[in-house]
Design a protein that fits this description.
Rossmann fold, 10 strands, 242 residues, alpha/beta, seven-stranded mixed β-sheet
Length: 242
C-alpha cells in the first residue's frame, strides 16, 4: 500500500492560460499525471528544465505558501509564481501529515523571520537558538530538524548547506522516512541523491523519466571533474584564452 501523503499529481492543462510559458516547457508539457511510489522522490535536471516549477505547483496545490514555510505561513515579498498550480490536482493519502514544510533556499530568510516571530514568546525551538542567530546553513538545517514524521518539499536545499551539512540532512532523511515522512526534493546534490532506493526523476527535452543514481549529471559530472580535475581545468583555460 502507498503510504505517502501525496500519492499522485494530476495536471489539467485546460485550467492553465493558453499563452503561459509552462505549456512550452519540454519536460512537463505532455505530462498528465505523476505517481509518487516511494518515500523519497528527487527531481533532477539542468537549470530551467522545469523541476522547480513542478515542485512549486505541487506545494501550492497542497496548500503551502509560494515562498515556503509551514502550512500556516502567509506572507509575500515578491510575486513570481507560475500558473502551473492552477491545473494541478493532488491525490492524497488517508494519512495527514502532523507537520509539513516547503523550503526554498533563496527565500529562507523570510521563513526564518516568520518562524522566530511564531516562537518569540517561548524558548527558542531550533537548536536552542533563534534562527537568525545561526548561519544560513545552520538555521536551514535546524528548521528542518524541528520536524520528524511529516511532508517535506524542498527546492535545492544544498544551496544553503555545506557538504557536511548535506550529509547531516541525508542522515535525517534516512531516520525520518522510517517514521513515515515523505520527501519531494529538486536538487543537484550528488550527496542527497545517494539516498538508498530513492525515486530519481530526470526532467529533460524529451519529458520526464526515472533514472539511476549513476546516470544523473550530478553524479557523472562531479565524478568526471574529481577524476580528471587538472585536464578539465586546462581545457577550460584554453577555451577562455581562445
Amino acid at each position: 500500500m502507498n503510504k505517502n501523503y501525496i500519492i499522485e499529481a494530476r495536471i489539467d492543462w485546460d485550467k492553465i492560460p493558453e499563452d503561459s510559458y509552462v505549456k512550452r516547457i519540454p519536460s512537463i508539457k505532455g505530462l498528465e499525471s505523476f505517481e509518487f511510489t516511494k518515500p523519497v522522490t528527487f527531481f533532477v535536471g539542468d537549470n530551467g528544465s522545469g523541476k522547480s516549477t513542478f515542485l512549486e505547483a505541487i506545494a501550492l496545490a497542497f496548500g503551502f505558501h509560494a515562498e515556503g514555510g509551514t502550512l500556516n505561513y502567509n506572507f509575500s515579498t515578491y510575486d513570481d509564481v507560475s500558473p502551473l498550480h492552477e491545473g494541478v490536482k493532488l491525490v492524497k493519502s488517508y494519512r495527514r501529515p502532523s507537520r509539513g514544510i516547503f523550503l526554498r533556499a533563496e527565500s529562507f530568510y523570510n521563513v526564518a523571520t516568520m518562524a522566530d516571530v511564531d516562537y518569540k514568546d517561548g524558548a527558542p525551538l531550533y537548536g536552542g537558538k533563534d534562527l537568525h542567530d545561526q548561519s544560513h546553513g545552520e538555521s536551514f538545517l535546524s528548521f528542518i530538524e524541528s520536524f520528524d514524521d511529516g511532508l517535506y518539499l524542498m527546492d535545492e536545499p544544498e544551496a544553503a548547506l555545506s557538504q557536511r551539512r548535506q550529509m547531516e540532512l541525508l542522515s535525517w532523511m534516512i531516520n525520518t522516512t522510517k517514521l513515515g515522512a515523505q520527501y519531494i526534493i529538486a536538487t543537484h546534490s550528488p550527496i542527497l541523491l545517494a539516498f538508498p532506493d530513492a525515486d530519481i526523476i530526470s526532467f529533460g527535452e524529451d519529458g520526464i523519466s526515472r533514472i539511476a543514481y549513476e546516470d544523473t549529471d550530478s553524479y557523472r559530472l562531479t565524478k568526471l571533474f574529481i577524476d580528471h580535475r587538472e585536464s578539465i581545468i586546462a581545457r577550460l583555460q584554453n577555451d577562455t584564452e581562445d
